[in-house]
Amino acid sequence: MRKVKDLTGPGITDSFGVGGTDLGVTAIAPDGRLVSVFGDTFEQAGVGGPGWRSPVVLFGDPATARSGIRWTGSTGPRSYADQALDYEHDSVVRGRRVTTTLPTDVITIGGEMYLHVMVCEGLGNVHWTEVHRSTDNGETWHRTDATWPGDLHDGLFQMLTWEQGDDGYVYAFSTGFQRDKGLILQRVPADRIGDPRAWEGWGFRDGAWAWGNPPTVALTGAFGELCLRRIEGRWLLCCFDAGNYRIDVLDLDDPTSNLYEAARSTVLHGTSWQHEDHGHGRVAQLYGGYIVPGSTLDDLHLVVSQWNTEHNWPYRAMQFAGSVPRPGQQAPEPAEPVESHRGAGIFRMAREVARRITG
Fold it and tell me: Which domains does the chain have, with CATH numbers?
């Protein structure tokens, strides 16, 4: 993949009060706009300082999705991007200290949008997760009845991605927020996405995989951010493989495909700061990897985050583009060896930075 542009940072999102931010999971609103949801956001470039809020929503022009997203607005009555959810950072909620609430994925179902978030005390420590709904194209958000404890399914139902099928179900892969766990799969009827009783797992029991069983790990590993989207009849699962310090795309026939046998392409490689090459897919301290609506297999666009935890800048979202092999094609090998051992260490450094900020 090659870098298309920086999506956030000085000279780009200053007018929205966004200097430093990350994540940027994106969907198409019912009115056709792009809705991108970002994580911990600050007015200054970097992490910390005034204007801490999360999540933050920016609206984009869909016509620019494949040339480099152009922002047209944000949540809030002013041009300043307000926090999309009603809570205070570093406060006590339900008897637990909550430092921040982080988005994991957003989806549009008919005329409504749903946002899944993790309620956290620092990075990697999830008290619970919940779903919020918007009936006005992502302008305002309200809690649904869907909330789950952070330790549900052995802590594997924290960081989530979802996509709607043609059968009336929404399928969701998830993992923990510690970047040391594998993936599980669940599904829920699209018209009951806000009802936690309607969710069911894909699990192995009595010698067979079936729906309705407790979810079984479908792919072992050490994963971070996830993004499941249907593109050209395929189900693409983009994931930050923290254990191997890279972003991979799995090409699936359907969500219940054997993930171990699925075609898997590495589209971006982690590397050191002195060996970065954004023109050839080598990015230091990368994470995220959210598919931009309008992507094709030959022109796949991702929103990718980068955080220099030593110098605290860059801390930004970027857009990358490239292609993934079509079914039956062989993924090309990287031209040069890249580092593949820093993903977990980066997260530990990020947790330390966050600890210093929040106390």
Answer: 2-358 (2.115.10.20)
